[in-house]
Automatic annotation (TrEMBL):
Lineage summary: Bacteria, Pseudomonadati, Pseudomonadota, Betaproteobacteria, Neisseriales
InterPro entries linked: BamD (IPR017689), BamD-like (IPR039565), TPR-like_helical_dom_sf (IPR011990)
Species the sequence originates in: Neisseria mucosa
Pfam families on file: YfiO
Gene3D superfamilies to which the protein is assigned, alphabetical: Tetratricopeptide repeat domain
UniProt-annotated location(s): Cell outer membrane
Protein name: Outer membrane protein assembly factor BamD
Stretch forming the signal peptide: 1-18
Length: 268
């Protein structure tokens, strides 16, 4: 039985390869007399019609026949976009990287950076995340940082770009996501009594993510952690910062003591 299944599987795989090769050969034959303008127009039409696989094939044919000139350069960018829309982030990023290496001074480099940021921004969104409002703190912090760097480079190098405004908005979301990730880790440490580690994470939020919604909680967490660590002066100093910056904070309504119930039960 296993041998039969193996033979069937191998036959199907070979058949699929033959089918794909046939499609490529068919496109090559159909387009063999096309000039670069017609080839690009056909590929672009396929892209706009969401036929991403065929669009990519036509762009590849275009690059192989007409490797120099603006059409080949634009084909590289369009290929990256097609991979992005076809949920192939790794291939999209590879295509963008190739474009950046080959054309560092290209007038559309702002778009390349924007597209790179979009790919990274959306890379870890699952199907459910697309249906529901996303909790940014649950995102992969590495992907967040990489996306932020791409958008930041765009805004810094091309402040007048038409993509700069949207990139700036997405950067704000990414900063919030990074702060949310840090507070999640800090909560984890607090729940397990790792107070020094919790303080270190909370301090990072206060220092690096001052404009996020997590600073208030981070300060309250630091106050309690310092009390647990028997650092009364540091706890008092932290509380003064909390009072100054968040005078109406619910955390101020409770005088933390080292043996109090865990802060997360009180706050949640």
């Amino acid at each position: 039985m296993k041998k039969i299944l193996l033979v069937v599987s191998l036959s199907l795989a070979l058949g699929a390869c033959a089918s794909n090769k046939g499609t490529v050969d068919k496109d090559a034959q159909i387009t063999q007399d096309w000039n670069v303008e017609k080839l690009y127009a056909e590929a672009h039409d396929e892209l706009n019609s969401s036929n991403y696989t065929r669009a990519i094939k036509l762009y590849e044919i275009l690059e192989s026949r007409f490797p120099n000139g603006r059409y080949a350069q634009q084909a590289q960018l369009d290929t990256a976009y097609a991979y992005y829309k076809d949920d192939e982030p790794e291939k999209a990023l590879a295509a963008i990287d190739r474009f950046q290496r080959h054309h560092p001074q290209h007038p559309n480099m702002d778009y390349a950076l924007y597209l790179k940021g979009l790919v990274l921004f959306n890379e870890d969104q699952s199907f459910l995340n697309k249906l529901a409002s996303q909790d940014w703190s649950d995102r992969d912090p590495k992907a967040n940082r990489s996306a932020y760097q791409a958008f930041a480079e765009l805004v810094q190098r091309y402040p007048e770009s038409k993509y700069a405004a949207d990139a700036t908005e997405r950067m704000a979301k990414l900063v919030d996501a990074l702060g949310g990730n840090e507070i999640s880790v800090a909560r984890y440490y607090m729940k397990r009594g790792a107070y020094l580690a919790a303080v270190n994470r909370a301090q990072k939020i206060v220092e690096r993510y001052q404009n996020t919604r997590y600073v208030e909680e981070a300060l309250a967490m630091m106050e309690l952690a310092y009390k647990k660590l028997e650092k009364p002066q540091l706890a008092a100093d932290t509380r003064r910062v909390l009072e100054t910056n968040f005078p109406q904070s619910p955390f101020l309504q409770h005088q933390w003591q080292p043996n109090d119930m865990p802060w997360w039960r009180y706050w949640r």
